[in-house]
Every structure is written in structure tokens, then in C-alpha cells.
């Protein structure tokens, strides 16, 4: 068990989620219960699952929740692309958020590898 707030990946994911919430405030009202909600849920699932995994007692459980975070990262990445293609996000905002999510994904993949490596010892 460890303090999730100390993990750089959690910090980045939390900041990403806050940014997604800010950017989706300007999405059309008819998207409130569809794309806006889906993008917000996918992004908030990333740090939430990191936090949940850190509250578990085994490395196997932590790796499981990190994998869920990675899946949510891929989902959020797609919803960002869809938002850009529907012209809800400008290209500059999209690129910034897409870069952020790709950094988070790389960090998660690295952390998953380290956690799984600890399971083998």
C-alpha cells in the first residue's frame, strides 16, 4: 500500500482530468449526457483507479487497477479525437490534451512493468 498522491503518474492524470473538465464546459449542451460525460468519466477513471490500486495490499491487485487506468486512458484518447473531429475542441487544445494522455499512457505502461517485475521476485 502506498500514497497515490506521491506518484507522478497520478499527479499528471489528476491534472489531465481537471483540464478535461475545464475544456468540456464549452461543449454543446446536447452533448452533456453523451460525449461530455463519457470523456469526463474516462479521464477521471484514470487517477481514480490508480488511487484504488494503491490502496490494495498486493502488487497483483495494483497491476490490475493500473491496467484499468491504461484502458481508460485509451478511451479518453479516443473521445478527445472524436471531440476534435466534431469541432468541439480546437486543434491546439486537442494536441495539448493528446500529448498529455500519451505521456500518461507511457508512464502507466512503465509502472505496470515495474509492478509486474516485483511480482516475479
Explain this structure.
The mean pLDDT is 95. The chain is mostly helical and 121 residues long. The protein has one domain: Up-down Bundle (de novo design (two linked rop proteins)). Helix content is 78%, strand content 0%.
CATH topology: de novo design (two linked rop proteins)
Overall form: elongated
* H/E series: HHHH
Number of strands: 0
Radius of gyration: 15 Å
Class of secondary structure makeup: mainly alpha
> Any idea how many domains?
1
- How many helices? 4
CATH superfamily: 23S rRNA-intervening sequence
N-to-C span: 18 Å
What is the CATH C-level name?
A: Mainly Alpha
Low-pLDDT regions: none
Can you tag this structure with a few keywords?
de novo design (two linked rop proteins); 4 helices
Short recap of the structure:
The protein has 121 residues and is mostly helical.
Give the SSE layout:
Layout: H1 8-24, H2 35-54, H3 59-85, H4 91-120
Helix pairs in contact: 1-2, 1-4, 2-3, 3-4
Amino acid at each position: 500500500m502506498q500514497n497515490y498522491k506521491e506518484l507522478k503518474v497520478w499527479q499528471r492524470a489528476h491534472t489531465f482530468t481537471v483540464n478535461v473538465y475545464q475544456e468540456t464546459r464549452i461543449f454543446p449542451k446536447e452533448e452533456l449526457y453523451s460525449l461530455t460525460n463519457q470523456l469526463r468519466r474516462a479521464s477521471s477513471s484514470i487517477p481514480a483507479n490508480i488511487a484504488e490500486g494503491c490502496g490494495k495490499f498486493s502488487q497483483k491487485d495494483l497491476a490490475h487497477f493500473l491496467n484499468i487506468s491504461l484502458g481508460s486512458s485509451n478511451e479518453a484518447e479516443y473521445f478527445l479525437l472524436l471531440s476534435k473531429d466534431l469541432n468541439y475542441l480546437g486543434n491546439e487544445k486537442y494536441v495539448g490534451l493528446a500529448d498529455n494522455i500519451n505521456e500518461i499512457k507511457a508512464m502507466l505502461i512503465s509502472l505496470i512493468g515495474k509492478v509486474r517485475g516485483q511480482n516475479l521476485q
